[in-house]
Amino acid sequence: MLPIVKGNRIKELDQQFAVSKNITSVDLMEQASDAFSNWFCSNFEDRSLSVYVFCGSGNNGGDGLAIARLLDQKGYSVTVVYFEDVQLCSEDYQSNFNRIPESVTLVKADAWDGEIAEGSIIIDAVFGVGLNRAIGGAIHNIIDLLNSSSAIRLAVDLPTGLPAESVVDGLAFHADFTLTFQFPKLSLLFPEHIKFVGELHLLDIGIDDEFLEKFQGNSFYIRKQDILGRHKSFHRFSHKGDFGRVLLIGGAPGKLGAVSLSSYAALRTGSGLVFCAPEFEEPLEIQFPYEEIMVYQTRANADLSVMDAIGIGPGWGNAIDPDYFLSIMVRFDKPMVIDADALNLLAQNPKLIKYVPENSILTPHLKEFERLVGKMEDHSERIESASLFAVENKVILVLKGAHTLIALPDGRRLFNSSGNQYMATAGSGDVLTGMITSFLGQGYTPENAAICGVYQHGLAGEMASVAKRRGMIASDIIEKIPDTFIDLGIK
Ligand SMILES: NC(=O)C1=CN([C@@H]2O[C@H](COP(=O)(O)OP(=O)(O)OC[C@H]3O[C@@H](n4cnc5c(N)ncnc54)[C@H](O)[C@@H]3O)[C@@H](O)[C@H]2O)[C@@H](O)CC1
Ligand SMILES: [K+]
């Protein structure tokens, strides 16, 4: 998995990497700027475009100067607006300042007329990971102006104003696209920052994963290549028992949809047998929209040990006796998936938490999580608190949202890269519960079940949204689950 290196270690990482490859830091800056300009050329093919590059005094500004030179070479008409006298800037900035060709218009910010031609592109290379205070003065005024411009806005590494690990305080650049080097900086994944980050792209600047691992902390980014190796493969003599027998507990009168979606998602994720236990007087009379789903009774002394996995909570309602929930956890006594109304029961009865089987997977959205642990200031606090919860209670906490966080009991924090805004639709979370329960029932470790479930749920959403966009609904996501296996090369 890709390490998310902390901002304050990046300078040291760059230096050590350059030494290990026998290159200079300005060579590494060139590699980064080259990756940026290549991305730029393949996404904005029209060479008659005007490009404005705004450069701060550090190495982010140095990147900007190198990018300006490279884009000028490719035929765009480039203007650089810079803020600081060159002798006050970083060494690599100075090298690149001296290499700016005459064909680039160079103008100091205090002499700039503030005009940006219609249809231009703005590149923000004011500050990156070196930001150490809120934006003020002339830079504040210019960022404000850029944010109100109708031009397309791109940020180099980080939108100016975003600290690498915490939530923005004051003004920041509003990018339509953020092109970050090698790995995402943590704050690019915060929901509060979506409006500043826009579309996030990682640019490979040649630093290999093995080298990055020397600088790894506890945060990682889940990419496509991390998924295949976590899957089990089945052979042609496998029978439905090998694919697991799972039970989804949930659904109450008038609320059968959620648990039906979870059950159907489990079937599409590969479960051999899917049972559902709805909270009805006469559950056996329930007709599910999918006839492959079988009804199970969990009341009294029903044998839960025959199940390979249980997912509990979707549409369960708010009239469940906490002792009944307790009896299910105690009787099953293996990792289970806990969602929705089952999470609310835990929030209302905190004494139950210690009975949650070790390594269970809890899947709250932000509100459910706050019900569980209390109100939080921002996402940075939420991440810490989710991780603490996972470690203290020896569970996996999946905090759903853009870049869903998987907090593991050993303290690692994994951030998802798949999915998009169209997945914010009713029932999307119920689908995830079914998918994770299904993998758990197929014999995956809880960690792998959570990772594969979260990643493929996002991928299925991306695939479904190609044709459906904002019209996508939860069952469209389910229909695309099989395609995610094909896309990832999973048998
Ligand atoms: N592997 C990588 O990540 C690479 C990083 N490079 C670039 O280097 C950047 C980091 O460079 P630096 O460490 O020089 O940091 P920055 O360029 O982000 O900014 C540092 C400078 O800005 C000043 N500053 C910070 N906040 C300010 C504020 N609010 N108002 C006024 N001045 C402020 C600092 O005192 C310092 O002089 C990265 O973001 C990236 O763009 C690339 O050049 C090469 C590879
Ligand atoms: K920037």
UniProtKB/TrEMBL annotation:
Is Zinc one of the keywords?
no
Pfam assignment, any one: YjeF_N
**Residues making up the signal peptide according to the UniProt record:** none
What is its cofactor?
K(+); Mg(2+)
Show where the YjeF C-terminal domain sits.
223-488
Q: Where does the YjeF N-terminal domain lie?
A: 10-213
Q: What's the Enzyme Commission number for this chain?
A: 4.2.1.136, 5.1.99.6
Lineage, top-rank taxon, reads Bacteria
Q: What residues does K(+) bind to? A: 60, 124, 160
Listed name of the protein: Bifunctional NAD(P)H-hydrate repair enzyme
